[in-house]
C-alpha cells in the first residue's frame, strides 16, 4: 500500500492538549503525558434503553431513560436515543370518589394498597387537590386516605391511582466496544420533569445489558441538565465526537474549530455495472470514509453514490446502490464527504474541545471562484477561514451558533499550510504568488519571485504537489520560508525565502526533501525544525547540512574513488554521516551532490553513482551547503575614458572555505571565461585560469579584502559590453562565510 | 538499476501494448509482484492505477514505497497484465541500500510545549505518529 495518508493539521486547545486531524480518520488527542495518542471524544450509545419496573415502592410517574458513556478523564458522550416511556403501575385502580375532607378519602374498589404505600393519583376532577403523589393509609378494602391531604371541592368524576414501584429495571442497554469508554451512566428523570435527568446507575461494567436500580426520586441527586431554562440543548447532542471528516483544526478562544475536507482521489477503482462493490487500485481508504459520497469520474457516469461500508483490508467499498455506469476496470474517482459538508465549519462547546454539537455547524458562503477551504488561521482576535482564492473572517460575540457570521476579508487565498504569522501580519502563498495580509489590508510582496508561479517558466513551482507545500517562520533569521516542489520533485526540496525586515528574496535548495516544518525552541531560543526522509528531523544550525565536524572529517581531498564511493585515505569519517549529503566543491566532478548510504573510516559510499568520478583534484565537503548569489544587471559607465572596472569583495577571513565569482555580460546566462591565468598572490587574492569562468577568492587572506580589476572602456558608438552581472558561489565548511561588501567598479549605481 | 533507501518510492511505469505494438488498454489493472534475491515474493497483487487515462492509452504508474517489508539487497519487480487475452509482463530490478527509514518521511511536524518538557510530534508517511522529547542540537 503506497497511497498517501492525508497531511495532518494540529492545534493546542485551551486545556493544553494537542489535537490532530487529517480529514480521513478520527481526531486524535494527546496531553503530553499519556503513553499513547488517543482518539478524541467519546462515542455515544446508538440504541435506546428499555425501561421497566418491579416490586412496590415510591417510584411513580412517567419514567424516561438515556444511556451515556464516559472516558477515563470523565468526558461524556452524547446520550443514547431516549427510551419509550414507562409508568410504574404495579397496581392501577379506577377512582370513584374523593371526599372533600381532611384528609381526603379515596374510593377505589379492591385497591389492595397497604398503609405506607406510595400512590400517584391523576385525573381527579372536582376535588383536584387529590391529584399528586401520596403516602396512603389503608382504611377499608375499597377506601384509603391520602396522608396530609386537604379537600378543596366536591368530587365530580375521573381519576386513577397507581402504586409506586420499588425498582427500575433497565434492559437492552447498549454495551460499548470502543476502548475509550470506561464508565456507563443510565440517566432517568424524576416524576413530572423531562428536562433534567439524573444519574440513576453508574457502572464500570462494560458488558452487561441489564441493570436495575432501587433509587427513588429523593435518592437521585446527580442532575444532568439536558435542556436549559432557555430551551438550549446542553447535553443531548452537544457532546458528539469531533467530526472525522474535517482536515483543518484551530483553537480560537475557548473553542476548537474544524473545517475543510479531504477530496480523496488516490489510485483508481474497478467498477462493474450493476454491482455495489467497488475495488480500490492503490488506494488507502479508511473506515472514517463510510457515509462519504463516491463519484466515479469518467465512464459516462453522472451519478453520485454513497459509501455504505468499507473493507479496509481488501480496500473494497460497498455502495448503497448498484453502480449504473459503464463497467471500467480502472476508473478515476472522487471520494469525499457530502457536498453539503464542503461549506460547513464546526466548533466545540466552550472549554470542551471534544464536545461538538453537529447540529450547530456554521455554513460558509457560496462564492464563485472561492475554491476549497485550505485552512483555519487564528490571527489577532479573529478566526480566519482560508480558501484557495479568498479569505473570510469569522466574527461572533458569545455563541457562534447564535451570533456567528463569516464575511469576506481578502480577495486572495492561501494554499494549505502556506501561511505564517509575523507580528501583525500574515504572510501567505496562493497560486498567484506571495502576499501579505494585515486584517484590513492585502499586499502582493513577491514580484521578484513571481516567475516561479508562471506556467511557462523554465523553473517553476509544481502546483500539482501543493499537499506537501508548507511555510515556516524563522524569527531568528527574520525570514519566512515557503517549501515548495519545483518542477517534478515529489516532496519540497526548495524554499522560497523572504526576509521581511530587509524585504529580500532568495531560493534555497536542500539536499534532502523538506516534507514538513514547525517552529519550536531550544534552550528558550526559537528554532525551526524540518521533517525529512530517513527518520530525520533537521534543526538548521551552523554551516553544514547534517554533518558534525566534531565527529570526524567533513572536508578533504579525494585520494581515490569508484562509481559509488569516495575515499580519502587521511580521513576519519563518522558513522553518523549516513543519509548526509557530500558535495564535490572543486576539481573533477565539482558540483555533484550525493547522499551517503554507508561509511567506513576512510570511504564514503553514496546512494547514486557519480556522473563524473572524482579524482585526486577533487575536494569534497560533507554536509556542504552551496550558496549562489547573482547581482542585478548593472550598466557600465561609458565615458570614452579608460575607466577602472573591477570587482571588490570584503569578508571575514576563514581558515577553510571556498568562494568563487563569475562574470556575466549583457544578461547572458553563460559566465565569461577568464582571458588569463593568475595566481592568488598575483591577483590581489583572486586566482583565475585562462578559459575557466571561475575566479577563486582566497578567503584566508587576513585583510578580508580581495579585488579583481580589469581595464577597458566602451565608447558610446562602439559595439561592446554594456551591462554586467556578478555571480557568487560558495560552500562554507564549519566556519560561517560572512560577506560585507561586493563592489562593482565602473558601473552606474542603477 | 536504480538504488534506493528504505522509505524511498520506487516508480514503476508500464505501457501496455497489443500484438501490433500499439498502446492498448489491458483487461484489468496491471499487477505487481516483488521478489527478493531468494525468489520469495515480498509483495504481491499490487494493482497499478492508470496515468492520464483520457489521453494516454494503457499507461500505468505505481510508486512502491520501501516499507518494512524490505531490507538491503536486490529485488525484482514483476509486472503482469493481459491485453486481448495475451498475457504480457515486464521485469525490473532495483537495489535497496543502507540508510533511510521504513516509516517514510515526516509528512507532519508539530511543536508541542508542555510544562515538564517540549515535544515534537511527527507523523510519518505510513501513518505512524512519533513523539520526540526535548529536542536539542
Characterize the structure shown.
The complex is a heterodimer of chains A (750) and B (137). In chain A, strands 7-13-10-11-12-9-8 form a 7-stranded antiparallel beta sheet, with no helix packed on it. Chain A has a 7-stranded antiparallel beta sheet with strand order 45-51-48-49-50-47-46, with no helix packed on it. Helix content of chain A is 1%, strand content 41%. Chain A contains 1 helix and 60 strands. Chain A has 750 residues and is mainly β. The longest helix of chain A is centred in the middle third of the chain and has 4 residues, at 400-403. Chain A folds into 7 domains: 1-41 and 241-261 and 342-409, 6 Propeller (Neuraminidase); 50-87 and 167-225, no CATH class; 92-163, Ubiquitin-activating enzyme E1, FCCH domain (Elongation Factor Tu (Ef-tu), domain 3); 268-336; 412-541; 549-625; 628-745, no CATH class. The mean pLDDT of chain A is 91. Chain B is elongated. Chain B contains no helices and 10 strands. In chain B, strand 6 (73-83) and strand 7 form a beta hairpin. Chain B folds into 2 domains: 2-100, Macroglobulin (MG2) domain (Immunoglobulin-like, Sandwich); 103-137. Chain B starts with a strand and ends with a strand. In chain B, the strands form 3 sheets. In chain B, strands 1-7-6-3-4 form a 5-stranded mixed beta sheet, with no helix packed on it. Chain B is mainly beta. Classes of the chains: A mainly beta (750), B mainly beta (137). At the A-B interface, strand 1, strand 26, strand 42, strand 43 and strand 49 of A face strand 1, strand 5, strand 7, strand 8 and strand 9 of B.
Keywords:
heterodimer; A: 750 residues; mainly beta; Neuraminidase; Elongation Factor Tu (Ef-tu), domain 3; 7 domains; 7-stranded antiparallel sheet; elongated; B: 137 residues; 3-stranded antiparallel sheet
Amino acid at each position: 500500500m503506497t497511497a498517501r495518508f492525508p497531511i495532518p493539521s494540529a492545534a493546542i486547545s485551551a486545556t493544553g492538549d494537542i489535537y490532530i486531524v487529517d480529514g480521513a480518520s478520527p481526531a486524535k488527542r494527546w496531553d503530553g503525558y499519556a503513553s499513547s495518542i488517543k482518539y478524541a471524544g467519546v462515542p455515544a450509545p446508538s440504541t435506546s434503553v428499555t425501561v421497566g419496573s418491579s416490586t412496590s415502592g415510591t417510584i411513580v410517574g412517567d419514567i424516561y431513560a438515556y444511556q451515556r458513556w464516559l472516558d477515563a478523564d470523565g468526558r461524556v458522550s452524547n446520550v443514547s436515543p431516549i427510551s419509550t416511556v414507562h409508568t410504574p403501575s404495579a397496581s392501577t385502580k379506577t377512582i370513584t370518589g374523593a371526599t372533600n375532607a381532611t384528609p381526603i378519602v379515596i374510593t377505589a374498589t379492591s385497591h389492595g394498597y397497604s398503609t405506607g404505600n406510595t400512590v400517584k393519583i391523576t385525573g381527579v376532577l372536582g376535588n383536584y387537590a387529590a391529584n399528586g403523589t401520596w403516602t396512603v393509609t389503608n382504611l377499608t378494602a375499597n377506601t384509603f386516605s391520602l396522608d396530609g391531604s386537604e379537600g378543596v371541592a366536591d368530587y365530580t368524576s375521573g381519576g386513577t391511582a397507581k402504586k409506586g414501584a420499588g425498582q427500575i429495571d433497565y434492559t437492552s442497554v447498549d454495551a460499548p466496544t470502543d476502548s475509550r469508554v470506561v464508565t456507563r451512566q443510565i440517566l432517568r428523570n424524576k416524576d413530572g420533569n423531562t428536562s433534567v435527568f439524573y444519574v440513576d446507575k453508574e457502572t464500570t461494567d462494560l458488558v452487561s445489558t441489564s441493570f436495575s436500580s432501587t433509587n427513588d426520586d429523593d435518592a437521585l441527586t446527580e442532575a444532568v441538565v439536558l435542556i436549559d431554562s432557555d430551551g438550549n440543548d446542553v447535553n443531548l447532542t452537544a457532546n458528539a465526537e469531533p467530526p472525522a471528516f474535517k482536515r483543518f483544526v484551530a483553537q480560537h478562544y475557548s473553542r476548537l474549530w474544524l473545517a475543510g475536507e479531504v477530496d480523496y482521489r488516490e489510485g483508481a477503482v474497478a467498477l462493474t455495472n450493476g454491482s455495489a462493490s467497488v475495488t480500490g487500485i492503490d488506494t488507502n481508504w479508511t473506515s472514517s470514509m463510510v457515509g462519504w459520497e463516491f463519484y466515479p469520474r469518467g465512464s459516462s457516469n453522472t451519478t453520485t453514490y454513497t459509501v455504505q461500508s468499507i473493507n479496509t483490508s481488501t480496500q473494497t467499498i460497498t455502495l448503497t446502490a448498484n453502480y449504473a455506469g459503464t463497467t471500467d476496470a480502472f476508473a478515476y474517482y472522487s471520494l469525499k464527504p457530502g457536498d453539503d459538508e464542503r461549506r460547513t465549519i464546526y466548533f466545540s462547546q466552550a472549554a470542551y474541545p471534544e464536545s461538538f454539537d453537529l447540529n450547530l455547524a456554521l455554513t460558509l458562503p457560496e462564492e464563485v471562484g472561492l475554491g476549497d477551504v485550505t485552512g483555519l488561521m487564528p490571527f489577532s482576535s479573529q478566526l480566519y477561514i482560508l480558501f484557495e482564492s479568498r479569505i473570510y473572517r469569522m466574527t461572533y460575540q458569545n455563541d457562534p451558533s447564535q451570533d456567528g457570521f463569516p464575511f469576506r476579508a481578502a480577495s486572495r487565498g492561501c494554499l494549505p499550510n502556506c501561511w505564517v504569522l509575523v507580528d501583525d501580519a500574515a504572510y501567505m502563498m496562493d497560486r498567484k504568488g506571495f502576499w501579505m495580509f494585515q486584517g484590513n489590508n492585502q499586499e502582493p510582496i513577491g514580484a521578484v519571485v513571481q516567475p516561479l508561479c508562471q506556467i511557462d517558466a523554465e523553473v517553476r513551482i509544481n502546483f500539482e504537489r501543493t499537499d506537501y507545500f508548507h511555510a515556516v517562520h524563522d524569527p531568528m533569521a527574520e525570514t519566512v520560508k515557503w517549501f515548495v516542489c519545483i518542477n517534478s520533485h515529489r516532496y519540497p526540496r526548495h524554499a522560497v525565502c523572504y526576509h521581511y525586515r530587509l524585504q529580500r528574496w532568495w531560493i534555497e535548495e536542500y539536499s534532502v526533501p523538506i516534507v514538513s516544518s514547525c517552529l519550536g525552541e531550544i534552550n528558550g531560543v526559537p528554532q525551526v525544525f524540518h521533517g525529512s526522509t530517513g527518520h530525520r528531523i533537521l534543526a538548521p544550525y551552523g554551516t553544514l547540512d547534517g554533518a558534525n565536524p566534531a565527529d570526524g572529517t567533513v572536508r578533504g581531498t579525494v585520494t581515490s574513488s569508484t562509481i559509488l564511493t569516495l575515499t580519502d585515505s587521511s580521513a576519519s569519517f563518522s558513522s553518523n554521516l549516513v543519509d548526509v549529503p557530500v558535495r564535490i566543491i572543486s576539481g573533477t566532478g565539482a558540483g555533484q551532490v550525493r547522499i551517503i548510504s554507508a561509511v567506513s573510516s576512510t570511504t564514503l559510499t553514496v546512494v547514486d553513482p557519480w556522473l563524473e568520478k572524482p579524482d585526486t583534484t577533487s575536494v569534497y565537503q560533507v554536509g556542504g551547503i552551496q550558496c549562489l548569489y547573482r547581482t542585478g544587471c548593472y550598466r557600465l559607465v561609458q565615458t570614452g575614458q579608460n575607466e577602472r572596472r573591477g570587482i571588490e569583495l570584503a569578508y571575514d577571513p576563514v581558515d577553510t572555505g571556498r568562494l568563487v565569482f563569475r562574470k556575466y555580460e549583457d544578461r547572458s546566462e553563460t559566465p565569461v571565461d577568464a582571458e588569463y591565468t593568475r595566481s592568488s598572490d598575483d591577483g590581489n587574492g583572486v586566482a583565475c585560469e585562462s578559459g575557466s569562468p571561475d575566479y577563486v577568492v582566497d578567503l584566508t587572506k587576513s585583510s578580508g579584502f580581495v579585488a579583481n580589476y580589469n581595464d577597458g572602456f566602451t565608447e558610446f558608438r562602439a559595439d561592446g559590453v554594456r551591462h554586467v552581472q556578478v555571480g557568487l558561489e560558495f560552500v562554507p565548511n564549519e566556519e560561517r562565510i560572512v560577506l560585507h561588501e561586493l563592489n562593482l567598479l565602473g558601473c552606474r549605481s542603477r | 538499476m536504480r538504488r534506493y533507501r528504505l522509505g524511498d518510492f520506487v516508480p514503476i511505469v508500464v505501457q501496455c501494448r497489443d500484438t501490433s505494438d500499439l498502446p492498448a488498454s489491458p483487461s484489468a489493472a496491471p499487477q505487481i509482484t516483488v521478489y527478493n534475491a531468494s525468489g520469495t515474493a515480498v509483495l504481491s497483487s499490487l494493482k497499478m492505477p492508470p496515468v492520464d487515462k483520457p489521453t494516454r492509452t494503457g499507461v500505468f504508474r505505481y510508486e512502491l514505497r520501501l516499507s518494512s517489508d524490505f531490507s538491503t539487497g536486490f529485488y525484482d519487480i514483476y509486472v503482469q497484465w493481459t491485453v486481448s487475452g495475451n498475457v504480457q509482463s515486464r521485469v525490473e530490478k532495483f537495489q535497496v541500500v543502507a540508510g533511510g527509514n521504513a516509516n517514510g518521511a515526516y509528512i507532519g511536524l508539530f511543536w508541542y510545549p508542555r510544562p515538564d518538557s517540549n515535544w515534537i510530534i511527527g507523523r510519518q508517511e505510513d501513518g505512524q505518529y512519533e513523539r520526540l522529547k526535548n529536542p536539542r542540537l
